[in-house]
Amino acid sequence: MITSWIPLLGDLRSYRREWVSRDLIAGLSVAAVQVPTAIAYANMAGFPPHVGLYASMLPVLIYALFGSSRQLIVGPDAATCALVAAALLPLAQGDTTQYIKLSAALSIMAGALMVVGGMAGLGFIANFFARPILTGFLTGIAISIITDQLGNLVGVTIVNRDFVPSLLELIRRIGETNRYSLAVGLGTLASLVVMKRLIPRAPLALIALLAAGVGVFFLGWAQEGVRLVGAVPSGLPRVAIPGVGYSAVQNIFMDAAGLVIVSFTSGMLTARSFATRNRYSIDADREMRAIGLANIASGLTGGFAISGTDSRTAVNDASGGKTRVVSVIAALATAAVVLFLSEPLSQLPSAALAAVLIFSAWGLLDIMGLRRLWAIDRFEFFLSLLTMLGVLSIGVLPGVVFAIILALINVLAKIYRPAETILGVLPDMPGYNDVSRSDKATEIPGVIICRFEAPLLFFNADRFKNRLLSLVDKATLRPRWFVLSTEAITQLDTTGAAAIDELYAELKSRNVQLVIARPKLYMHRYGAPLKLGEKIGPENIFLTIESAVESIQLRDSQSARRME
Fold first, then answer.
1. Are the beta carbons of 153 and 355 closer than 8 angstroms?
2. pLDDT in tens, 37-79
3. What does the domain layout of the chain look like in residue ranges?
4. What is the DSSP string of 310-370?
5. Most C-beta atoms within 10 A of its C-beta, which of 106, 130, 360, 374?
6. Model confidence, pTM
7. What CATH code is assigned to 420-563?
8. pLDDT 10s digits, 170-197
9. How many CB atoms neighbour CB 66 within 10 A?
């Protein structure tokens, strides 16, 4: 029982000696990427560097205890950083201390919502974040990060943080470029690109940042205007509840709800992709609880919101990590760096950190994914594009909410305008199939066999009735029978049942008998008050289309013999 709540204990019980070296190497490799990346993301969100490091220690340990993924590494990521900055910087009004407190409170609130949601079985919400939305969201975030970091790359402090104003401000102030900062940034970016090709499994960010820091130090470029990270406090974080006041909690509650969607869904996508690759399963509710507890831990220790991270999880996978012990080692190694290496961290150039963020953000751009959407479904392509534009223009959370609303409208539109499939006999195919699949398909004379391809609910009930009656009215030869296959009608309500009743009456007025094939159990529940079964007649309700057609043909032949 306890291992179902704390999976790390299960790993330890079945731990093998040969896994020690793999997990140790993977954990240190993850830490080598995690430390500079955490500082870079903290810088991007407007936090002091130690805040990013605090978000990469206890939260990583907590997730290792409770998460269902053996490989997922949690920590600061682009999406959550962008959301936190967009939501809280205006509220903080330039007060860094208040900004850190608001961020911690936001992380705790979002974490608490995820824990409650996971216990209530709400992990399924990850499925509502459609892939086109995610593609557009990450693309928008990537473009936003790249634009936001261009100022740091060229050594210009950009005041505006919104996409268009910051881009215009950068263009206006491009003449203020510090050529030394630009050289450091471009050199770091070039080294990352080259190393990615030559030594893809190496801790690229760590190597590039160390090289940049050493180069700036020995060349004396700090005196030429190259900005450094600055003082990084030495020591472990203290556990404390951020005192922000009741009104501040009210102001950030909706942002916490949005953070739940972004943090949990992003983490789930990463966890599922690596689980699929390595053939094990992910429990969505457990993931929701674990990511929630990790966020609470981050807020209580002075960090900010975290999620599952692509880059560090990929490092874990590439390094051959076997168990959740990797996260434990990575967290402890990060803590050791904070305790003993704070001085070297303070010498890292901001332009090099900007290059690391730009390099990471470039990997989020999914141009091939957009091309595939264009080829497969134009609506989903434009949905992805609108999500991207929404993130860039109206903000991260409003852009995502807008895209989700569009996706739901698209689902409702597809249910409102479903296909009505005419069934018949196809050569060399058993049963009754869609006649549009072959030019050689034939329909049963005097019989229309139709399958309605959607739930039958209040908003498509009239369309259902009118579309099916139009099939009768437009038929070249007036049919005597109308077989309605209900196998695809997965849901029914009272309005839908009334529409079937009205369809029966309208068909009867046209001297056409309604026949029901493959009825669902719920149809009796909704049809009983209308006495649908009695009206249609039990002799006109069949478990299969084949038995319905056989009965029709038998009755037609008997009627023909009587007429003779």
1. yes
2. 888 888 888 898 889 999 999 999 999 999 989 889 999 987 7
3. 36-367, 420-563
4. HHHHHHHHHTT--STHHHHHHHHHHHHHHHH-HHHHHT-BHHHHHHHHHHHHHTT--HHHH
5. 106
6. 0.71
7. 3.30.750.24
8. 888 888 888 899 999 899 999 988 988 8
9. 21
